[in-house]
Amino acid sequence: MEPADYTGRLLGGRYVIGALLGVGGFGGVYAGQHSVTERDVAIKLLWPDFAQAPDFRKRFVRECRLAARVGSEYVVDVLDAGFDEHLGQPFLVMERLRGENLGERLIRKGRFSAEQTSFYLGCAAAALERTHQKHVVHGDLKPGNLFLTTRPGGTPIVKVLDFGVAKLVGPTGLANSSHSMGTPLFMAPEQLRGGASSAAADIYALGQVAYSMLVGGEYFRAEQQACGSVVELVERLQGGVREKAGTRAALRGVELPQAFDDWFAGMTALDPGLRPSDSRCAILELAELLGVDPPRPLAPLRTEAALAVSWDEEERSQSRGEPVQPISEETARVTVELPDDGTALSPANARRTRQ
Fold this sequence. Notes:
By secondary structure, this protein is of the alpha+beta class. The protein folds into 2 domains: 86 residues, Phosphorylase Kinase, domain 1 (2-Layer Sandwich), CATH 3.30.200.20; 253 residues, Transferase(Phosphotransferase), domain 1. It has 13 helices and 13 strands. The strands form 4 sheets. Strands 1-2-3-4-6-5 form a 6-stranded antiparallel β-sheet. A 3-stranded antiparallel β-sheet has the order 7-9-10. Strand 5 and strand 6 form a beta hairpin. Helix 4 packs antiparallel against helix 6, helix 4 packs antiparallel against helix 11 and helix 10 runs antiparallel to helix 11. The longest helix has 20 residues.
C-alpha cells in the first residue's frame, strides 16, 4: 500500500505533519511539530484503508492507551492522542527520537559486543519490568522495536517502541489473543498457535533478540530461508527451539559461551511456565555468563553513581544528528538510579529466582 502524503497538513488542530519517517504493515510514522510550541514530535497514523476499519481503529486506540499506561524512560514517551475529523484518522503523538533501531544497527555494523548486548538488553529488560508491572504484554519485541538513541546529555539509552500488538493481561496473567500479529521469528510458540499470551512471550522474544545481537542474525534464519510461505514458517516455528544456540552460532563462525546454551534454552522453553519470570534477573544472569559487568540500567546501587559505558562515537554522533568525527572510542558517563524499593540484585540470586 502506498504511504499517504500528509506533508504540511494540520493534525488535530495543533500538529503540522512533516516527512514520512518509517512504514509498517498498517500505518506509518511521520515527523511533526507542535504548531504553537514548535516541539518536534513523531506522529503515528494508520493507512487510510485501515483507518476506516473499526477493528483497526479500536486496536490503534488500545495502543495509545497501553503505551501511555507504562510510563518508563526506557519506553518511547506518548505525548498526545486523538482523532482528526478532517483526515478521518486516529493519531498517536510520541517524542521524536534521534538514532536508529537495533535491527538497522545489526544490518549496518553486524553483531554486538558482549558489553553492548548486556547494556542494550538491560534497557529493554527495565522497560519490560515496568510493562509487566502494569499488567501489559508487549507481544512484538524484536530488534526493529528497540531504538538506540541518547539522553539529552548524550548518554546512551534504548527505548522500546510500538505497542500495537500489546495487550492488557487479566487476573490469570494471560491476555486473550485470537489474532497473532507480531513478527514470527521473535514470537513465542504459544503466540504463533493463536493462544493466550503472557509476560513469558516477551521473555521468549528477549532471548531471541539476545541471540541475534551476539551472533549477527536470527536463530530461525535458516527456517525463514527454507520455508516457501509465511504459513509454512509459522507452522515450523510453533515447535519452538530444537537445536542448541551454540551449534547454530558456530555455523556463522561465532563462538558463544557454553553457558549461553542453557540460558537461551530457558528463555525460549516451549512451555511458557519454564521460562524465567523476571526480565531483570534474566539479563543479569546473561551478563554474568558473558563475563561482563551487570548492565547499567539494572545496576544494584543504593545511590546515584557515574558509571563508565563503552559507547561508539559514531553511534552517539549519528543519534544527535552531528557529523562523525574520526576519533577513537571514548568512555561515556551514565547516571543510573536505584529502583524505588532499593532492591539489590546480583547475578547469583538472579539464577535462584528463575522458575
